[in-house]
Amino acid sequence: MPQIDDDLQGCRVLVTRPLAQADALCEGITQAGGIALHQPALAIEAVHDAASQHRCQSAAEYDWLIFISRNAVEHARPCLPASLPETVKVAAIGQATASVLTGAGIQVDLISKGSGTSESLLTEPELAKVTGQRVLILRGEGGRECLAETLRGRGAQVDYADLYRRVRPVTSPGELSRLLDTGIDILTITSGETLDNLLALAAEEQRDITSLPLVVMSERLLTLARERGFTDTVIIAKETSDSGVVEAIRQWREMVTTE
Fold first, then answer.
1. H/E element holding 46?
2. How far is Cα 93 from Cα 236, in angstroms, rounded to an integer?
3. Sequence-distant (≥ 6) Cβ neighbours of residue 32 within 8 angstroms
4. How far apart are CA 116 and CA 95, in angstroms?
5. What are phi and psi of 210, to 5 degrees?
6. Residues paired with 44 in a beta bridge
7. At a CB cut-off of 8 Å and minimum separation 6, what does 40 contact?
8. Alpha-carbon gap, residue 120 to 250, rounded angstroms
9. Which of 98, 143, 184, 205 counts the most CB atoms within 10 A of its CB?
10. Paired residues of 14 in beta bridges
């Protein structure tokens, strides 16, 4: 992440990404002068499903591969073919997913724009006419159905490769309370599961976090946060990336310092 100004000086940010995926965001916050406090509220486990692994191995038979997240890329890599024919197009939900694909040597043909969601990907013209085409969605277990249902409605044959599951991580008793007691200025949330896990942890420790400002990744998460009782500012990151989250925190900081 490029060096940026220290306009988050002293801002204490709770980062809730999984343990192995928080470094870049924490580094970006630190480079901006902030203080990154990491409390994982999500853990990723591999799913060893024979049918899903076979679909990955047969990826060359599809017209489209759609990677829902960077976790999907990382868990798919061991069973994907060494190379894909030009007839196979690759789509990514969000810039972070696209970056991991590129880093793995996989050419990305389509990236969801705007909010970086399934809904935004579906607005792309390349996926408007998919009648008779075969689509493989590489995702986490129990993901949303919007993408597959819409593509099937457009005449595509859609399969899933469920490659990982999202679970609540094991935490030490009182760990969240200790961080809250040091002072948290703003929370960062990148998925609905993360939000619910953090709220469950807070409830177990008899703490209320719903009055804290919050950065989320989409309108859907904003709506969910409001439904869960968040009453303060909820800001949507304009880009679904670590730098996008940092920029959203900067936007919030500028707003509160000029009030």
1. strand 43-46
2. 16
3. 4, 5, 6, 7, 8, 246, 249, 250
4. 7
5. -75, -10
6. 166
7. 16, 17, 18, 19, 22, 169, 171
8. 25
9. 98
10. 37, 187
Cut 0.85: pTM above it: no
Measuring CA to CA, which residue among 141, 101, 187, 169 is closest to residue 112?
101
CA distances from 33 to 26, 68, 227, 236 (A): 11, 32, 32, 21
**pLDDT tens-place string over residues 83-112:** 999 999 999 998 889 999 999 999 999 998
pLDDT band at 3 (very low <50, low <70, confident <90, very high): very low
- Closest by CA to 26, choosing from 172, 251, 243, is 243
Query: Which residue is listed with tokens 């969910």?
Result: 224
Q: How far apart are the first and last CA of the chain?
A: 30
Closest alpha carbon to 247 in 92, 3, 22, 28 = 28
How many CA atoms lie less than 13 Å away from 35 in the CB half-sphere? 10
- Inter-residue contact 127 to 113 (CB < 8 Å): no
d(CA 88, CA 61): 8
SS3 204: helix
In the structure encoding, which two tokens stand for residue 144, read together?
A: 């949303």
CA neighbours closer than 13 Å in the CB half-sphere of residue 132: 0
Task: Enter the tokens of residue 134.
Answer: 């075969």
pLDDT score of 147? 95
Q: pLDDT, tens digit, for every residue of 109-160?
A: 999 876 568 888 999 999 999 999 999 999 999 878 999 999 999 999 999 9
- Tokens read off for 143: 């993901």
Count of all residues that appear for the chain in the document: 259
Residue in the block written with tokens 């759609």: 66
